[in-house]
Amino acid sequence: MLELFHFLPPLLSGLWVTIQLAFGGSILAVLAAFAVGLLRLSRKAGLRIAATAYTDFFRGTSALVQLFWVYFALPFWGVELDAMTAGIVVLGLNHGAYGAEVVRGAVQAVPRPQYEAAAALNFTERQTLWRIILPQALPAMLPPFGNLLIELLKSTALVSMITLGDLTFQGQILRAATLRSGEIFTLVLLLYFMLALSISFGVRRLERRLAVGRVRRRPMVAADV
Amino acid sequence: MFDWEFAISILPALLKALRVTLQATLVGISIALLLGLVWAFLGHSGRGLPAKVTAASVEFIRSTPLLVQIYFLFYVAPNFGLTLSPFSAGTLALGLHYSAYTAEVYRAGIEGVPSGQWEAALSLNMGRFLTWRSVILPQAIPPVIPALGNYLVAMFKETPLLAAITVMELLQTAKIIGAQTFRYLEPLTLVGLLFLAVSLVASRLVRRLEVRFGSR
């Protein structure tokens, strides 16, 4: 039992790397999701096709293969990224592709007459998007985005395979050094679980914040399959 | 830059490894489909302790990384006298992880069966087992087959994680070729393309299923 306390410092330093990765990856993922999701609804066919190709590519190949490709193969094209940057870029772009579908779905769910009303009021396209459409689409995006962030958090474990010292990596090092695999991996799993719980807690608070002053149209049951 | 001759020369080895990847996917999804049904049963068995324990376990499995679960099974099981080969530990972890997702899908399907069906079975004096087997499941499962199919594609894309415990699947093979030849560009690009090809075909098939079962 006492040894558990010796395990904690390296695990916590790994946890910090995991948190940084998850944070950086999430920001990039949300940015990519909005950019690509809106491009998929563009009126220009070229932009639409490019956005579809992006989502098909990132959703069609494995995240770990993408990570290996960026870290080991990209240097052959003269692009060298350190492990942390490679991790953030791949996690962000990969989950951004899934998020793009969330953005697209939520924007498409905004009733048609809202656009017509905006046009009737002589709103420009940009004003319509920022003031009419997105504020209504945002609440519908939150629950699936919450799930996506948890998926992203879980994917951060992949970077241990390009030797970045995240939580999983530290767990592996400790296991090799002490052979106490049971205790170590249980601890690692619990730490990930706590992170995931705090994400879903945060998203739920944000949902409640955004729901203030709104008529609730659908039950808040997460049918997030 | 990209050496085509080299790429073609390593293709047979990669195609052989693709078979291992596909095998792992099939074994994994079979475990997930069966185990998910078990979770769904236990979760449906009322408000008691089994339902609560099931819900908590499913939540825990869903919220922690598959890679760590794979390590857990592979390295911890021997402590309990159960030594698993890398392939069986890996596919078991895959199946267990995805069973938490398929359980939710089954649950949605089961909840979609009108409650009158339960009452009808009761009034016909059918037993619990018979009700599930011949009334509820035949109505609950077909509508959720497309959703289950999506997890087949998702699982296929997660099999590279098995490389972490030295299963000779696609990624592991590409890594070894890379280490031997100092060229990572061709093997890793080919692995990416193979994944893209298989999962695009698979997701088209899932879409066909959706049409067939009328959920779209």
TrEMBL record, chain A:
It is found in: Cell inner membrane; Cell membrane. One of its GO terms (biological process) is amino acid transport. The keyword Flavoprotein does not apply. GO terms for cellular component: ATP-binding cassette (ABC) transporter complex. The chain crosses the membrane at residues 15-36, 57-77, 184-203. InterPro entries: AA_ABC_transptr_permease_3TM, ArtM/GltK/GlnP/TcyL/YhdX-like, Ectoine_EhuC, MetI-like, MetI-like_sf. Its main location: membrane. The keyword Cell membrane applies. One of its GO terms (molecular function) is transmembrane transporter activity. Keywords: Amino-acid transport, Cell membrane, Membrane, Transmembrane, Transmembrane helix, Transport. CDD domains: TM_PBP2 (cd06261). Residues 15-203 form the ABC transmembrane type-1 domain. It is a multi-pass membrane protein. Belongs to the binding-protein-dependent transport system permease family. HisMQ subfamily. This is Ectoine/hydroxyectoine ABC transporter permease subunit EhuC. It comes from Candidatus Manganitrophus noduliformans.
Automatic annotation (TrEMBL), chain B:
Keywords: Amino-acid transport, Cell membrane, Membrane, Transmembrane, Transmembrane helix, Transport. Residues 18-206 form the ABC transmembrane type-1 domain. The chain crosses the membrane at residues 20-42, 188-206. It is a multi-pass membrane protein. One of its GO terms (molecular function) is transmembrane transporter activity. CDD domains: TM_PBP2 (cd06261). Gene3D superfamilies: MetI-like. GO terms for biological process: amino acid transport. This is Ectoine/hydroxyectoine ABC transporter permease subunit EhuD. It comes from the Bacteria. It is found in: Cell inner membrane; Cell membrane. Belongs to the binding-protein-dependent transport system permease family. HisMQ subfamily. Its main location: membrane. One of its GO terms (cellular component) is ATP-binding cassette (ABC) transporter complex. InterPro entries: AA_ABC_transptr_permease_3TM, ArtM/GltK/GlnP/TcyL/YhdX-like, Ectoine_EhuD, MetI-like, MetI-like_sf.
